[in-house]
Amino acid sequence: MTPTYAFDGSFEGLLSAVFVAFERREVAALRADPAPDLFGTQQIIRTDQRQAERVATGIRQWGSPGALDTIYAAFLSEDPAAPDAIFAHIRALSLQGRAVEDNPLHQATWTVHRLAKRVGREVHRMHAFVRFEEKEDGLYVATVEPACDVLPLIGDFFRARYVAQRWAIFDARRKYGIYYDLASVQVVDATPGTAAAETDAAEEDRFQRLWRTYFEAVDIPERRNRRLQLRHMPRRYWKHLTETQP
Amino acid sequence: MLRPQVIEKLEVLADAAKYDVSCASSGGNRPNTPGGLGNSSGMGICHSYTPDGRCVSLLKVLFTNHCIYDCAFCVSRRSNDVKRAAFTVQEVVELTIGFYRRNYIEGLFLSSGIFKDADTTTERLVRVARELRETHRFNGYIHLKVIPGASPELLAEAGRLADRLSVNLEIPSEEGLKKVAPEKDYASALGPMAFLKTRIDDGRQERAASKKAPRFAPGGQSTQLVVGATPENDHTVLHLADGLYREHGLRRVYYSGYVPISPDPRVPQGQAAPVLREHRLYQADWLLRHYQFEVGEIVDEAHPDLDPEVDPKLGWALRHPERFPVDVNRAPLEDLLRVPGLGVRSAHRIIAGRRHGTLRWEHLKRFGVVLKRARYFVSVPGHTPRLLERSPALVRQQLVRPAAAAPQLSLFAQAA
To answer: Between A165, A231, A232, which is nearest B101 by CB?
Structure first.
């Protein structure tokens, strides 16, 4: 019977479980949330940074330069199929190298790429749909509700773009955020200073009104095409977009 | 601080600019600087979409909609009784910076009606760009409109500051242009285009030699052709576009279906904007730029208009059954690119995939090939299509009106 390894839900935890499976030369099912252990077949795998790093090194060796990023992105999809697919994909990489990445019929590889693509699309949408509000102390704050856990992947983009501007992006669904203090991007539990700093209401309000005015002015009613609009900008994003808020 | 009147100006001057679609935020690739604001990625980002399905990427405004010209198709023509407004340089700068900081936009697209003369107008636009780049250390995207007749010194300054420049030919033939805008001609647009082409090419060469060399409109030039305001056919439009790409080195040509907003009798009244025709033109444009098609293969004297029923690639394939089926395991890239339902990405995946083994039908779907179309045109082990050879008309019927096609035809012969 296939053993089950339970890891702590982190990427390092997943890679640690992969390491242990390789070491014991066994194929295991990987679970992030330990299910009830009815048959006593579940083993808790401790997260070990060095073990995780060795697996990462292996991936870099066996696969193309983007292989590790693809695997990390697939992990961030939070899809329940991800851990097992990632494990099978890494096994295939260790045996066949890059050839596996060009083979779409390998089921696990296909799943990993599909999930990574899904996350990539969400990342691109975050670049587009994050809307900042300026607070009185000069901090620019945004709230988002992404379908997958993309905050780890968007910090660099916003840091490069707004290098001289303090900003924070909060994931309302996962209840954590990233905050840039002009030196580095850090993970935070809540948007810093929200309790204290108020929005500079008048100024911020003016810009939001200006943006809404602009958005309405550039529409061409003779070319109305709601389906096309929704295809590019699904309604679930509208809650946090200044121009589509009521 | 922006005064309250700015909101009214914005409404007027954004509305006036919305028919210029020559306005993506791509082609940049400008990194930020220490202490600066913004950058631009090569691909461009669409920050929002309006109810007409079009993307909002830049703050797209006219500096002013006062204009000394009277072009029949333009909402801002001088004889039109429309509300007029003008920004100050400071106002455009503050709007751009304020929107940019909030991640509403990738940058600024600035055009203008012509007030006083070309140079006075251009000088104002250049001043906005300079303020943004130098005073505010802005490294986001700037697209400046070139005013026909502007002097070379001002054009050069514009190129130094902007990522992309464009001047719109608007009407796809000079005779057409003369009928609706007798004060304009092609020379006043093609002249600046040629001047800028030389400067852009020089700029690119200098930067290839040294990263310290200054940028000159790194995103190149684009232009817009309005279709449906005047009677040119697709043959004329596409030959013009092809010439602009080949000889004038333009990065993009945009096609804009005419929206009948003008009661002037020189332009059509009351019809819907020709969005399907516009769509087919973009498909044809893609064939020219990404699929290695020659313009003569898409339209010619005998077929001067694009078929509204089928996309141009499928249209070509149906006219050339002798070029099919394409053997997915052996065909070179240029033949793969000719298969309807097989795009550039799929073609590259096929080439990468077949290095590792023989490709079969099951691979194609995962490579992103649209099998419903491609199946008439490709062969893989176990699948050799025969219907195209026997009757392109029936293949066409299958793809355009699948329900009406005769059900008892056997579409495929199994390989022996």
So the answer is: A165
